[in-house]
Amino acid sequence: MLTSVDTDLIRALGDPLRLRIVTLLARETLCTTHLVEETGAKQTNLSNHMKVLREAGVVETEPCGRFTYYKLRPEVLAGLSAQFAALAESARTAVGNKRACP
Question: Fewer beta carbons within 10 Å, N or C terminal of the chain?
């Protein structure tokens, strides 16, 4: 059921810029410089968004010299997708259920 979904994960993906970042990282591993170029966000703003995504477990870092690369953790998104699919299935089977008003 959806109640077991980590609210930090939902919040992390709910921001338009973070969702854009996740979309970019679904295609390739990128460093901060690439993400700044692709999104047009300021580096400090981007770093704050990346911190939220890291803490939610959506991305992981990979140091490479003086750069930090970010890559998506697809298993986290797949788990969230499975939980939404279970919620949708529950809704399909509950279509005829209606609680009477007191």
Answer: C
